[in-house]
Amino acid sequence: MKASNTEPETGKNIDKSSDKPSTDTAPFTDFIRSIIAEDVKNNKNNGRVATRFPPEPNGYLHIGHSKSICLNFGIASEYEGGTCNLRFDDTNPCKEEAEYVESIQADVRWLGFEWGDRLFYASDYFEKLFEYAVQLIKDGNAYVDSLTADEIRQYRGTLTEPGRESPYRNRSVKENLTLFERMRAGEFENGTHVLRAKIDMASPNLNMRDPTLYRIRKVAHHRTGSRWCVYPMYDFAHCLSDSIEGITHSICTLEFENNRPLYDWILDHLNVENHPQQIEFARLNLSYTIMSKRKLLELVEEGYVNGWDDPRMPTLSGLRRRGYTPEAIKNFCEHIGVAKTNSVVDIALLEHYLREDLNKHAPRVMAVLRPLRVVIDNYPENKVEELEAVNNPEDHRMGTRKIPFSRVLYIEQEDFREPPPKKYFRLAPGREVRLKHAYYIKCVDVVKDKKTGEVVELHCTYDPETKGGWSADGRKVKGTLHWVSVPHALKAEVRLYEHLFLKAIPEDETEGVDFKKNLNPDSLVTLTSCMVEPGLVKARPGDRYQFLRHGYFCVDHDRSSNGEPVFNRTVSLRDTWAKIEKAQKNQ
Ligand code: ATP
Ligand code: MG
Q1: pLDDT of the residue at 477
Q2: Beta pairing partners, 435
Q3: Residue 97 per-residue DSSP state
């Protein structure tokens, strides 16, 4: 079994072992795959494997869902004839919208999974589910209760005390049937009656204390319109939808473990052809990230982020806009594996898989985010050279490109220091550095703003014998800087993102403190005067690049207010200088 990164613990620790991804190449398996392999071996379900991914369309999918998607679609693809359905569990008309149905399909497809003609909606089964409920009533296994919601709660008891039976529990089958039909016909108001399973008010499992199966909701549904005013509860609809679709293995997250007896009870008390096996696994939690759709919706509705696809959101649409690749997410999901105990995975691990994938595929380009002008005094005034640059040293098939070099260049402001601190190998007065793909230059003069003292321009000389970035005399320069030619530069907006939350466990709220108090005020920094290589004029939304020494960036679908291209920082490169500087500051 593949070692997963989870330890039995409270779910509050961050799993540090995730920092060092294992490189083992053992065939990927886990306890769920083992159960299924055993079932297939024993010809259970005639050797069929049928799974499903069952989102409730009440929000956008997030990175946590991708664990479930990879698991369900992945397992199905591992068996000849295996199937995985996409099913919308759309039984709650109050929170569901067609927008979510569409975004969910787009996101699953983006991850690279296809359901073919196996797209289903629990709402397609409303009629059938109603018939099943009628059958339970006829068999004396369900009754219409007329207690209020509050009373039902009071009667339910607690973990230590048994519940009490409702005074309506022993209504006759006939009376129950009539009332249930009248509920459907819209004769009663919301909350006046519910249909409950007749199980055991003394059960140690609260889910088995006569759970509600149907309630009245006079609300239009995104697919069935106003045809219905009674809606099935999740527990009733879910197991029966699985059964109707012939699902063999109903894989869900751990919080449904206590619902399994009810899942089985319902199917055992109805004459169904298929009784799927529910198997629970630990949901994915990531540090610096929230996964609850309710809380994500709160961030969207209250304007803390710019919509569900804000690049800081952990939604798949947000990650996509930020520049994440489906491969990175799938590799990550495969690595974390599937376990039965909750834990929190370090977001650094997700970023590791992202860098690993982008490193292979993203072309390198030069972009100056905070420009400082450099004049090369001994370079001819109107000369322009086209220098050759490799697009990706990791993959020579990605070829080369030409970049223009001229007398006036931009370099990064932070690549010049006066005086240079210890271990700072970049440009300083009298210091020689290499310009990537170009020449060695030496700083000979510094122009400052008379009032503020701010450095506004550098004067340098170049050594024509160092074309391509090396010298015949073998003299060493320690720093290599990226640059862009001033007359050729393309102006762009760059958005730098940090974690959305300051706290590793943002939901770890001390009493009375809202999770939004842990939002990072600097999670977005917008730079509007960036200068990038002219070749990027052909960059299209969604294209990904490595900006040398900065990180990976992805072209946004929107342009800046000035009509310039916008680049979202997907993830930074590991910055050794920042670490040294930080360590020095802390001394
Ligand atoms: P939320 O609590 O964010 O609303 P949910 O579990 O209600 O999430 P659903 O749309 O019902 O969201 O989930 C669809 C499927 O995805 C379910 O099978 C659920 O178990 C699974 N899932 C949801 N969140 C995670 C997660 N963080 N890790 C793994 N699987 C998840
Ligand atoms: Mg849910």
Answers
A1: 94
A2: 481
A3: -
| 167: confidence class by pLDDT, cuts 50, 70, 90 | very high
For residue 431, what are the CA distances in angstroms to 373, 415, 457? 17, 12, 16
Does the annotation count 56 as an active-site position?
yes
Is 476 catalytic? The answer is: no
Ligand 1 site residues, Cβ closer than 6 angstroms? 54-56, 64-65, 67-68, 252-253, 283-284, 291-293
Q: Which string of b and e fits 370-406 if b means at least 16 CB within 10 Å? A: ebbebbbeebeeeeeeebebebbeeeeebeebebbbb
> Could you tell me where the DSSP H helices lie in 323-422?
326-336, 347-361
Q: Tell me which of 68, 108, 338 to substitute to probe ligand 1's pocket, judged by most ligand atoms within 8 Å of the beta carbon.
A: 68
Residues pairing with 252 in the sheet: 280
Res 574: pLDDT = 79
Say if CB 348 and CB 376 are below 8 A apart.
Answer: no
Q: What number is the average pLDDT over the span 191-220?
A: 98
Identify whether the C-beta of residue 283 lies closer than 8 Å to the C-beta of residue 64: yes
Neighbours of 420 (CB within 10 A): 16
- C-alpha–C-alpha distance, residues 518 and 504, integer Å: 9
To the query of whether residue 293 is one of the catalytic residues in this protein, the response is yes
Which positions ≥6 away from 574 have C-beta within 8 Å? none
Active-site residue, selected from the candidate residues 2, 44, 56, 181? 56
**What is the residue-wise DSSP string for 456-516?**
EEEEEEEEGGGTTT--TT------EE--EEGGG-EEEEEEEE--SBSSSSTT-PPTT--GG
Best residue among 53, 65, 283 to mutate for probing ligand 1's pocket (most ligand atoms within 8 Å of CB) is 65
Determine the atom of ligand 1 nearest the C-alpha atom of 58: 10
Q: How far is CA 404 from CA 388, 437, 484, 488, in A?
A: 9, 11, 8, 7
pLDDT band of 576, cuts 50, 70, 90: low
| Mean of all residue pLDDT scores within the chain | 93
Predicted model pTM? 0.91
Three-class SS state of 66: helix
Q: What separation in Å is there between the alpha carbon of 56 and the centre of ligand 2?
A: 6
For the cut 90, the answer to whether the pLDDT of residue 19 exceeds it is no
